[in-house]
Amino acid sequence: MPVSNDGVPQSRLRLIPRPRERQSSSMLTRVMAPAAISAVMLVAPLAHAQQRGGTGTTKIVMLGTGNPAPSPTTMGPSVAIVVRGTPYIVDAGVGLVRRASAANAAGVKGLEMPQLQRVFLTHLHSDHTIGLPDLLSTPWIMGRTAPLEVWGPQGTKAMMDHIFAAWSADNDIRINGLEHGNKTGNKIIVHEIEPGVIYRDSNVKITAFYVKHGSWKQAFGYRFDTPDRSIVLSGDTSPSESVVQSCNGCDVLLHEVYSEKGYRTSPPAWQTYSKAFHTTTTELADIATRARPRLLILYHQMYFARPNETPATLMAELTSKYKGKVVSANDLDVW
Question: How far is Cα 187 from Cα 203, in angstroms, rounded to an integer?
Fold first, then answer.
């Protein structure tokens, strides 16, 4: 049975090691693809916590910190804010349901399958949404009776309608066949949002704000205000003043980042893309200095110059310009 794992505020529970990545002739592969690791590491139990994470009320669980490449150790971008045992998931990268199960097995209360009922999408890039069919179906199969509620930009409803239609035969067999599945947990409620307060209950107030992410007409960051913490997630973004304004001394800022070193060694076309869609260490140092979070967490980290840059070199770039508290997240860290 899962056991509550309350701990010291803003400390980290590390459940798996940081994956290593390999260099490839493809720029996309150079950014994201990790080296193969042993099968033992892939199936080893994840309950060997080094220290407790989060607060007694609010936990930030890193369900995935990766990118589109098929890393065996890093899942797609997804973060669960768990407040008093209720999870609020941001983004649905590949593997988030398995990561939620692993975190729950390691003692994070609130990530039981029937509890996975809400997800807030920052934008509709595939690496942030490809886990949606899993999030819709697996918790329902495992006993969820509440519908899945999805908040996101324009286009979210069309995406969810297509996902529901794609698994219509599966739903019919599970409900009307020998499994006798419930008729409610596979349903979807979609909220297409604009900036402002988009959700509120007794645990949390969630505020959406626009960020700049290249060609996307709508991309959002989110601020979570819980009884004991204020948490801002940038989503994917180039430098956006809205992040500074939304944090403004918040307890935790989670922000994406890529390195200056990697940028300088990239082809011109990739440099143009990177500047429009993402944030360098130098740019993030300026943002964080003005945003003044008590803790800055790097996630969705990008390495363009593998094997000549590592998480340590990325952190070194950032900390040479930013003097606040900062950590680099791994899958299944709990803060």
Answer: 24
